[in-house]
Amino acid sequence: MYNGSTMEHLSKLFGTPARVKLLRLFLFNSDEVYDRDAVIKMARITPATASKELATLSRSGVVVRKNFYKEVVRPGSKTLKKRKTIGWILNQKFIHLEALTVFMRNTLAVSSKEIAKRFRGAGAIKLLVLSGFLVGKQDGELDILIVGENFKEHHIENAIRSLEAECGQEIHYMMLTIEDYLYRRRVRDKLLRDVMDFEHVEVINKLSAV
Question: Are residues 12 and 89 in the same domain?
Fold first, then answer.
């Protein structure tokens, strides 16, 4: 649910693309605590940018610091150990919380051209469908359906993670071969029905040529 021009406009309004990413991350995952490492990974930003933007959001009152225990792997060992660390969580008492959340959701705009560009070179994709929160349905089980052959899974994974960073939400996706997709359609698979029989956006559809 990402539109390049929308991100550009929001960046001018809120300061930087990174700040928009962090706002969405915390607003759309209101109960989660994130330390700096998690923010860097999920928003795909540099450590310096993460520190700067977290400080800005903290000063503005959008997020607050919170100590929590994080499971980490000891150096040279596979044993998990809980370590107390500093994180940030959405401030539920922020005076403009509801308005800001609604605004950020309403400014997630689908750009089929941009989505198609992200998956270019990811294999012989015959059908790419957006559903779930990417078309405004918050209770959908699937957000992206990919049908084709010879998938380049690393490329697809990278495209998904990039979109998640922009949208601030986990993207649920499924890859199917053409044969699997056609079979599931014949047997009226519930998950596919929930996608194809209701609101969705077909970014790519070359199945008629199969």
Answer: yes
Determine the residue type at 27: L
Structural domain count, the chain: 2
154: tokens are 């690393």
Dihedral sign for Cα atoms in the order 167, 172, 178, 181: negative
Whole-angstrom distance, CA of residue 203 vs CA of residue 130 = 7
Residue 146 sits in a domain of what CATH number?
A: 3.30.460
**Global pTM value:** 0.78
Query: What average pLDDT does the structure give for the chain?
Result: 88
72 contacts 83 by C-beta, under 8 angstroms: yes
Tell me what pLDDT residue 105 has: 84
Burial 94-120 (b: 16+ CB within 10 A, else e): beebeeebeebbebbebbeebbeebbe
Does 151 share its domain with 79? Answer: no
How confident is the model over 113-163, as pLDDT tens digits?
Answer: 888 888 998 999 999 999 988 887 877 789 999 999 999 999 999 999 999
3-state secondary structure of 90: strand
